[in-house]
Design goal:
88 residues, single chain, globular, alpha+beta, binds zinc ion
């Protein structure tokens, strides 16, 4: 696995630039030339692009490889937007 890419995606998740939870809906298809939300490189028409719809408003596109890294990290990076734990 590309550790630099993993670090980049992990940092984006910690910064709230990438979601840390599973999407509502996912699609996969060939790239449309849009920039990947993981590595910031375009997803070319010859590459597989994963598209994740989170709440009907936010859509994230990722290369297949970036998607695999992101999906692994969703269980490891704390959600920066999560509600703070209730105080007793
Ligand atoms: Zn990518």
């Amino acid at each position: 696995m590309n550790s630099t890419l993993q670090q980049k995606i992990s940092t984006k998740m910690s910064d709230g630039l990438l979601p840390t939870h599973a999407p509502l809906r996912s699609f996969a298809g060939f790239g449309s030339g849009s920039l990947c939300h993981g590595c910031d490189e375009p997803v070319l028409g010859s590459e597989v692009e994963h598209e994740h719809d989170f709440d009907g408003k936010r859509t994230f596109r990722l290369h297949a490889a970036c998607e695999a890294i992101w999906r692994t990290l969703t269980n490891q990076v704390p959600d920066p937007w999560a509600d703070p734990p209730p105080r007793s």
